[in-house]
From TrEMBL:
It holds the Pfam family CoaE. The keyword Magnesium does not apply. The keyword Membrane applies. It comes from the Eukaryota. GO terms for cellular component: cytoplasm. The lineage of its organism: Eukaryota, Metazoa, Chordata, Craniata, Vertebrata. Gene3D superfamilies: P-loop containing nucleotide triphosphate hydrolases. SUPFAM superfamilies: P-loop containing nucleoside triphosphate hydrolases. Belongs to the CoaE family. Coiled coil: none annotated. Keywords: ATP-binding, Membrane, Nucleotide-binding, Transmembrane, Transmembrane helix. One of its GO terms (biological process) is coenzyme A biosynthetic process. This is Dephospho-CoA kinase domain-containing protein.
Amino acid sequence: MFLVGLSGGIASGKSSVIQVFRDLGCAVIDADDIAHQVVKPGFPAYYRIVQAFGHEILLENGEINRQALGSIIFHQSEKRKLLNAITHPDIRKEMLKQVLKYLIQGYRYVILDIPLLFETKTMLRFMKHTVVVYCDPQTQLSRLMERNGLSQEEAEARIAAQLPLEEKRQLAQHILDNSGEWEVTRRQTLRLHSQLEDSLDFLPLRLGLFAGFVGIIYLFSRHFLL
């Protein structure tokens, strides 16, 4: 098994691409889903966030108001770094658990949907392949304004909080260009899936696990024969 890191930018179409992979039966780990989970009441990160940002970011039911928190971190880079420092260790632990689950189940590759893959760089060294869902800047801005009902200033602030898509494009091994018609992007995604499925990049880990298993059997056999 090998890992595929998939990233993009806000309103670039990453979620739609991920859904194509899910429909194909691929193993997908969504960092955003995990991030939502680890900040729920009762989890350690929740209490650290409330301590750092105050009770003003809480809803009446005690859960974190993601919109209020988002307004803070999208306009204050230091606050954004603080939130990442609080949540990222817990997110990585949960991602590792899921990777091990898919390894046991025998998947050839696992997609890790990580929005900040290139910003934080922490997980990059574990990725055999990296993918960016790209769209041109004007398309990204228009889509974000329409999708979230934001003013141009608000949308530009959210886009500026991330590494520009053009820079991510230069860093990735595979580009899925979602600037135009969705059907074109879907076909690109299907071709990438075929390339990954046909890849032999899963073999080193499989062979390593097999060698480890054989070694354990050998040690046990020597123990009982002596």
